[in-house]
Write the structure tokens for this entry.
Amino acid sequence: MKRVLTGLQPSGELTLGNYIGGIRQLIKYQDDYELFVFVPDLHSITVEQDPSLLKERIRKNIALYIASGLNPKKCTLYIQSENLYHANLSWILECHSYMGEMSRMTQFKEKSASKKNVSCGLFTYPILMAADILLYDADLVPTGADQKQHVELARNLAERFNSKYGETFNIPEPLIPEIGARIKDLQEPTKKMSKSSTNEKAIIRLLDEPEVIRKKIMSAVTDSDNKIYFDEENKPGISNLLTIYSVLKDISIEESVNLFKDSNYGTFKKAVADIVVEKITNLQNKYNEIINSNLIDEILDEGYKKTNEIAKKKYYEVKEKVGLGRTDNIRLYQ
Ligand code: TYM
């Protein structure tokens, strides 16, 4: 059975973009694949975090995964920092990565451009992501479009390691949804919707109040042409709303355009707000049932045990191939 793996950072409360690009596509995989979904909390400290908020968001992420439809009986849920092998493998991979290739990472360039103090972790972050993937020999990595370059780096590092030390890592494939891979900011629809945005009006958080969501959609930036059709370049705001509507209704963009081609923007925005509020209200109801239950700890304990075993074996194999430690030290891992 193919193994599918992904994670969503707890660096801010999850957004509709994270749901559409990152979580939604996982729901269908849990029946046919072995699915691993984790909280990459080590990634979050590449930028400054408030420790108590971070801890709270880690738990919230798990509750949101389940509330979105991930069934803990069918998939494995865990926290990156609880498993020490992620950071250990990352170090070994760092020593097999080049400054040049890391400097070409688009997300690093964007995230570091506006910062005074850029942490070394922000620079090496894609290597930790490669470790997250390669530690489990993931076959498929579903993400939004912004993470594709990072999955490609994981492929390159795996190939490089395999050719130097012999077959060790599976080569993962990125899995980017056909529609909804880059949900846009509601106020600046040429930018992606980002959970670390400073303009709350521009993003929809999965835990926003329904009425707040409605207001944000009704005041989303569009254009003055008052015609509804899909053209990302010239009509980014309307195209973004068409994408959100189509994905949540599970219909094609063409079908949505047909439905609204004779409507005005007000009517169209109201329809978008209705479907977003409907989906998010269902999700929030489930979230409220889960967030304070013991279920989360039980699930995470199970997830830790299972993933720690797998990661331990892979890490030992890598360490041995690279020549680290003592040869017979496998007994330390038993
Ligand atoms: P993160 O936390 O930024 O985003 C989580 C997921 O949401 C997707 N996404 C979007 N999709 C559509 N439209 C948007 N506006 C949008 N914004 C975000 C992201 O593509 C992602 O799928 N480095 C990763 C987390 C990570 C990871 C991994 C993922 C760490 N290790 C291993 C996969 C495998 C990140 O920061 O995603």
Notes: The chain has a mean pLDDT of 96. Residues 5-9, 17-18, 20-22, 40, 43, 129, 132-133, 141, 143-144, 146-147, 150, 181-183, 192-193 surround tryptophanyl-5'AMP (CB under 6 Å). The CA atoms of residues 204 and 213 lie 6 Å apart. DSSP finds 13 helices and five strands in the chain.
